[in-house]
Amino acid sequence: MFLTQLSFLSQFKSFSFGRRFLSLKVIMSNLEQVSSNKCFGGFQKVFKHSSSELKCEMKFGIYLPAKSEFGKLPVLYWLSGLTCTEQNFVTKSGFQRYAAEHNIIVVAPDTSPRGCNIEGEDDSYDFGSGAGFYVDATQPKWSTNYRMYSYIVKELPKLIESNFPVLPEKKSIFGHSMGGHGALVIALKNPTGYKSVSAFAPICNPVKCNWGKKAFTGYLGEKEDDWHEYDTCSLIKKNGSPFADILIDQGWLMTF
Asked: What is the pTM of this model?
């Protein structure tokens, strides 16, 4: 599926800016490079920054193919699942080989706010730290920090587009499990912002599963009508799909 997504994006040709982006100097003063490693001719980097949406320090990985030194490229956002950080996709998937081949910049953010010192945020694997569920929390305890929907839709793309050689109009999104849920919901609610969306084993109907019920109750409250705004099946049932094709890859032997 990753190859399909990359092949789709690679049809968009970049335009040259000479060697303007060779040094990739960042514009925003709060963006700090954590690591940089040569990888398949490009660079796999990790940055941290102070998030205005989440009120904490956040990290994200970004892969920059060799051609990003000379011009802007399409960008693909990856959303990881429960318990993950920005490191899981970066270190375990091997996506860099294909991103380099197809000249796609890939951004992999963390899955939740970190270090907010909210009572109970580290008590379970499926709620709180590592489990932001890509929603904007409305419950007072969580609403200040747990705004992953707005972080992914608004703040992070603005940060990326201001500091890296991406084509904003050639932006797509995909993810796995909780991240697949996030990718689908975000694309369905913002169809003009993304060229394509796909997902690996996503939580497509969280209002009907224990993970979703727990997260939505905690972040959004007891009113189930509010939950449906972050449920893929509910959104498609209500509005249809603005995308001609959505690729979902599901393993039949999964136990969830």
From this structure: 0.88
What does the pLDDT look like over 143-160, one tens digit per residue? 999 999 999 999 999 999
Q: Which residue spans within the chain are E strands per DSSP?
A: 32-39, 42-51, 56-64, 73-79, 105-109, 166-176, 197-200, 247-249
Cα 40 from Cα 2, distance rounded (Å): 17
pLDDT of amino acid 15: 34
How many structural domains is the chain composed of? 1
**Looking at residue 154, what DSSP letter applies?**
I
Number of H helices, E strands in the chain: 10, 8
| Nearest-angstrom CA–CA distance, 171 and 204 | 22
User: What is the domain extent for residue 84?
Assistant: 2-249
Residue 255 lies in a domain: no
> Given this model, what pLDDT does residue 29 score?
54
* pLDDT value, residue 5: 57
pLDDT tens string 36-60: 999 999 999 999 999 999 999 999 9
Q: Which DSSP letter does residue 196 get?
A: -
CA 163-131-113 angle, to 5 degrees, is 45
